[in-house]
Amino acid sequence: MADISRPSASPGASPLFLREDEIRRGVELLYFGYTRLTNAIDQELAKQGLGRAHHRALYFIARQPDLTVGELLRLLAITKQSLGRVLKELHDRDLVVTKTGPLDRRQKLLRLTDSGGTLEAELFAQLRERLSAAYVTAGQESVTGFWHVLEGLVPESDRQMVFDLRKDKV
Amino acid sequence: MADISRPSASPGASPLFLREDEIRRGVELLYFGYTRLTNAIDQELAKQGLGRAHHRALYFIARQPDLTVGELLRLLAITKQSLGRVLKELHDRDLVVTKTGPLDRRQKLLRLTDSGGTLEAELFAQLRERLSAAYVTAGQESVTGFWHVLEGLVPESDRQMVFDLRKDKV
DNA sequence: GAGATATGTCAGCCATGTTGACGTATCTTG
DNA sequence: CAAGATACGTCAACATGGCTGACATATCTC
Q1: What would the pLDDT profile of B92-122 be if each residue is shown by its tens digit?
Q2: I want to staple A142 with a disulfide (CB 3.0 to 4.6 A). Which of A162, A169, B97, B145 is the partner?
Q3: What is the ipTM of this complex?
Q4: Which of these, B70, B42, B63, lies nearest to B127 by C-alpha position?
Q5: CATH of the domain at B49
Q6: What's the domain count of chain B?
């Protein structure tokens, strides 16, 4: 992997120059990859009169049913006022229901309704389509590399939270 | 699409289920990786009273000096009215200058001023710090995998434009 | 019973995107 | 050369989704 470089430039090829180009390549690909992936669902969302903020909430609730409001706040890293607006709309459209926490009655556990689940599945299908095409083209080995680099971008303090999404809730 | 859902049902772990989990893992890591990386520069930007929109413009102008307004519009995929506001602010603060295109006098070529370049370099340093830490942890092989997957996420129609960022302008 | 915590909500502000309409300079082409 | 296309700028109005600050309620913990 020596040849990530841009050879034609300095023949001595200072490591600093190579490094900058590698970093910029990552920044750009991350930007375009992320924005183009999210674009994939905008049309579907617009049909429902919803925005990306709604999708993020739907996504995480689908991912971890019975998530509490507080946990969702930590995942999204926004204020409760902002989230409140979104959750209220999802609730008004019967996409999300809440129930009182069984252990701590102050908590509200979030869950998708049937129609909420259907909508999330439709949106997810778009993401799946794009991402699996990219996975297939790149190959399995690249996919694990992709994951490793991204994991390294998540600050230590958030990492456990992200990993926990893959566990079933108790 | 009902069958993809999460099957505590199938203990045999259908390939379909694994696929969903791989896709969700990618979606989440991309979300957290991207947002946390961009968070890295928010504080620096806030000091200057600038926002992310300004940074995106600065970044691409730094990346490809003498970029035209039209090229920048295509990269950012926003309306000229939105970009106009941002460029005006950057110009008012003496971070960006324009000159008339030498071949086509309708065009305006964008370039950073000295102070614009300094600011962009400071912001880039933050990105470099985060990304290179992630690169080092993941290893060079992972980095190329990371690039490959992301390239696959960029639609065919945009890919050339993205690759051209790595070329010097004529 | 006092204080901390989880949640909700009112009110207003800001950044950054959108559409639609229109103006000017310059290039291209019949 | 005249007519139309193109590159850029700008006015006005509006939507989305963040933010701060302040305050209320229910519930848990000590």
Answers
A1: 999 999 999 999 999 999 999 999 999 999 9
A2: B145
A3: 0.89
A4: B42
A5: 1.10.10.10
A6: 1
